[in-house]
Amino acid sequence: MSEDLRLETASSLDGAAASADEVLALAARAAEADGVEAISEAFRLALTSGRGEVTHTLAYSGQSLAGYAARDASGSAELVVDPPSRRHGVGRALLRSVLDAGASGVWAHGDLPAAQALATSEGLVSTRELHVMERPVRDGDDGDPELPEGFSVRAFEPGRDEQAWLDVNRLAFASHPEQGSITLEDLQERMAQDWFDPAGFLLVEDTTVTQDGGAHPLAAFHWTKREPDSDTGEVYVVGVHPAYQGRGLAGPLTGLGTAHLARSGVTTIELYVDGDNTRALATYRRAGFEDAAVHVVYGHSSAP
Hints:
Low-confidence stretches: none
CATH class of the largest domain: Alpha Beta
Number of strands: 12
């Protein structure tokens, strides 16, 4: 490790020598060099908003920002090193810092060879995989599939549907370490982003049941995402209420979002799915999606 390397850890970047914009600029340089984003959406939002229980660690070489790491309350961590500062011990110092502070796992986006080598040298093993899958938009993708009898689809309505969506999302992702814990504030933060479009937030309702006030219960949803001016659309989140699983919604639900994205003019559709979610992997592969990259969490082995 370079003798002039120092680490600064804080719960907020307010008052830190480096600002959030400087960290984002560093991450952008890393993404350009590596071909994969260095910081996930959740940590990026925490970085820019200051919300959430996130600990930030800044690595300086002299007076220059050389790297950045973040760790949340669940123990999940990420780190990035500025390309000109690599191979000088910055990544190792950041990795050891977040592990010593209690990180249970550190993301390696794209699972690049340098990340694999660093993890192995520190005795870490892969504990989770997140597949990035994609496929090109094809002729006929713009047509909505037919839902099973008794279900209908409509767009999310801000101010009306937040709590119903939060309830179903929590149940659908009860075992998911990030998605299932989303709060109203988290949802509102995402709705405030420049990519948010309620027309692409599709809700599937059970029309055979009428609740108080005439509403139908939310059975499933497909939330799509498209960054402004991007040719790629994302299957952002797809969820089915546990009571409606096995009712033939998975395939049509995927198709509804695909059709919306195709009509919006994208040329490629991508999605993220956990490696142990075999049912979802099978559904997406049947829909023509293939692995484009794999993100890996490295941590200490749980084996005795």
